[in-house]
Structure formats: structure tokens, C-alpha cells
Write a structure and sequence with these properties.
Length: about 240
């Protein structure tokens, strides 16, 4: 495997070419602290009530007014308009933390599923699954290709506390087989270090992974997925506001 590069790439141009870009100072330290206070409490309550110590806290656009406000706020709107060429709207939210008690690694993968309000058999959509009680489905490639994910970082995040690793350009290769993922892993890997209040913007199809933190302090991330279109055949985005 090629050496991993630690870095930040912050132009929208690099989003089009590489499938990701890092932005600094997207939200203020005060907004980070307010989100942390609200989400950390909710997350700890969830972790205490389940034996599964990893995973994330989901469906926050519906349960947290603060998350909904930040997700629809001007700072993110501007970044998304430039990146997607249209006004995007948030369709899924997850809060992740890595701590000494909940520290995990994630293997290389693409994000292939969307959350929908109900299962309605539709050409091009499938397979179907249920995660945390919510129906998920793999939509046609064109829909994934028009989406973007914003990972808002609520703590400084570097290679020692579980920064996301990505493979530039992999988003443009469609849905990859296991053998193709192995080939992509031979290419340049970028470790996306993001300061508190910054954001990693990425395409869902970009190959990404993360290591368990070697210096496990909080690594709180609000993961927000955006789309630019309604779904066909009466399918509805689960978290559409
Ligand atoms: O936050 C992480 O470390 C990994 C999250 C992830 O892989 C995902 O959202 O698909």
C-alpha cells in the first residue's frame, strides 16, 4: 500500500475531482459546545442502555432542533450549493463519538444506503434492510452520485484519534466489488485531519475507513447526508424536514 498522506484539501475543485474536501471554521466553537452538550448526553444514555458500545446516535434531524438548525444553516448551505450545484436538503443524520469506552475501527467501504419512510418496491431500489428500526435501501447509482455528506467535527481530530481515511477519486468508480476495493487500497490514502468546527465534505461513494483511536479522547462528529431531489414512486426520505 502507498504511504498514507495526512492532509487537508479545502477547495471545492478538489471535491469534484477527489470526492472530498476539508473546510475549516464552518461552525463556531460555541455552536460545537452546544451540540456536544446536547448530543453527548443523548449518546451516553443510549450507550448505557445497550450492550453495543459502538455505532452512533441516529435520526437527530427529527429529535434535535439544534441539529436541524445547524444542518439547514447558511454556512452549510453555502458549501453544499457550491459542491452540488443546487440547494441541498438534509436527509439523514448520525452522531458518532470515539472514547476510551467506545473505540472502534471501520473497514474500507462506500456508503450505499439511504433511509426511507417506508418500503415501496421500486425499480432500481434494493436491497432493503432495517437499521435501528428504520427502513434502508440502496438507491440507483445516479441518486448516490448527486448526494453529499458533511461530517461536522465537534473536537479536533487527527490521525491519533480516529480521523477518517479516504481514497481520492474512488467515488467516481461506481459501486465497487471486494476485489476492486482491494485494488483501490493500493492507491494514495489521505487521512482527513479536521479541526474543531471544521467539516469534511464527501461523496457517499468515496471509499473510507477509520482506525480505532490510539489516543482515545472524544472524537465527536455530526454526520449529515444531503440530497437535491425527492425520491420517485411515493418513496420518502426518512428524515426529510
Ligand atoms: O466515523 C467513523 O469513524 C466512520 C463512520 C463511517 O464509516 C460512515 O459513516 O460510513
Amino acid at each position: 500500500m502507498k504511504a498514507e498522506v495526512r492532509g487537508q484539501r479545502s477547495e471545492v475543485n478538489s471535491f469534484a475531482r477527489d470526492g472530498f474536501a476539508v473546510f475549516e471554521k464552518v461552525i463556531s466553537p460555541g455552536q460545537c459546545d452546544a451540540l456536544c452538550a446536547e448530543l453527548t448526553d443523548l449518546f451516553q444514555t443510549q450507550q448505557a442502555s445497550t450492550r453495543n458500545r459502538i455505532g452512533g446516535l441516529r435520526n437527530l434531524l427529527q429529535t434535535s432542533r439544534l441539529v436541524a438548525e445547524v444542518a439547514a444553516g447558511n454556512a452549510l448551505k453555502r458549501i453544499l450549493r457550491d459542491a452540488l450545484g443546487k440547494e441541498g436538503f438534509p436527509v439523514r443524520s448520525i452522531f458518532f463519538d470515539k472514547t476510551p469506552e467506545a473505540n472502534w475501527s471501520v473497514a474500507w467501504h462506500q456508503d450505499l444506503h439511504i433511509a426511507v419512510a417506508e418500503r415501496i418496491e421500486t425499480p432500481g431500489f434494493g436491497p432493503w434492510s432495517v437499521k435501528a428500526g428504520v427502513v434502508h435501501v440502496q438507491p440507483p447509482l445516479e441518486i448516490l452520485n448527486r448526494m453529499a455528506t458533511v461530517r461536522l467535527h465537534l473536537d479536533d481530530c487527527d490521525s491519533s484519534n480516529g480521523a477518517l481515511k479516504v481514497i481520492p477519486g474512488s467515488h467516481a468508480a461506481g459501486v465497487l466489488s471486494d476485489a476492486e476495493v482491494e485494488q483501490w487500497k493500493q492507491r494514495e490514502v489521505v487521512i482527513c485531519e479536521v479541526p474543531k468546527g471544521g467539516a469534511l465534505l464527501m461523496r457517499p461513494l468515496l471509499l473510507h475507513a477509520s482506525r480505532a483511536a490510539t489516543n482515545p479522547k472524544h472524537r465527536r462528529v455530526l454526520h449529515l447526508e444531503y440530497a437535491i431531489e425527492e425520491l420517485p414512486n411515493r418513496l420518502r426520505w426518512f428524515e426529510r424536514q
